[in-house]
Amino acid sequence: MPPLADCPFFRFIIPNMENQIRLPVAFSNVVRDNMSNPVEVITTNGQSWSISWVVDEEHPHQIVFAGGWRAFYEHYHLRIGDSMLLSYHQPKFFYVAIHDIRYCKINYGSLPAIPAHGNYTVQFFAIIPVNDPDTLKLPLRFSREYGWSLPRPLTLTTPTGHRHRVGWNMQPNGRIVLHGGWDGVRARYGLRDQWLVLFRYHALQNTMYVMFFNGHTMEINYWAHAGPGTDSTCITDPSAPRSRHIADGFRTTNPFFVIPIMHRLANRFLPNVPPLPGVCEDSPITITNERGAWTVRFTHYVGRTNGCFGIGWSALATACQLRHGHVCVFERLAPQEYRLHIY
Question: Structure pTM?
Answer without folding.
Answer: 0.55
